[in-house]
Amino acid sequence: MEHNEQEQIALHRWAVIAEAASDRLTGAERGALVRQIAARSHAHPDGSARAYSRGTIDRWIRSWHAGGLEALQPSPRADTGTVRAHPELFAEAAALRLELPGRSAAQIASILYHRHGIAVSERTIRGQLRRAGLHREALAAEPKAYGRYEAGRPNERWISDVLVGPWVPYPRRDGSVRARLFLIVDDHSRLLVDGRFFAHENARACQELLRRAITRRGLPEVFYCDNGAPFSNAWLARTCAVLGTRLVHSQPYSPEGRGKQERLNRYIREAFLAEAEHRGIESLDQLNDLFAAWAEQVANRRAHAETGQAPAERFQAGGPPRQAGPALLAEAFRWSVTRKVTRTATVPLEGNAYAVDPALTSRRVELRYDPEDLTRLDVFLDGRPAGQAVPFVTRRHVHRAVPQAARPDPDPTGIDYLGMVAAAHDEEAGTGAKIDYTALGKLSGGQQ
Question: pTM for this structure?
Answer without folding.
Answer: 0.64
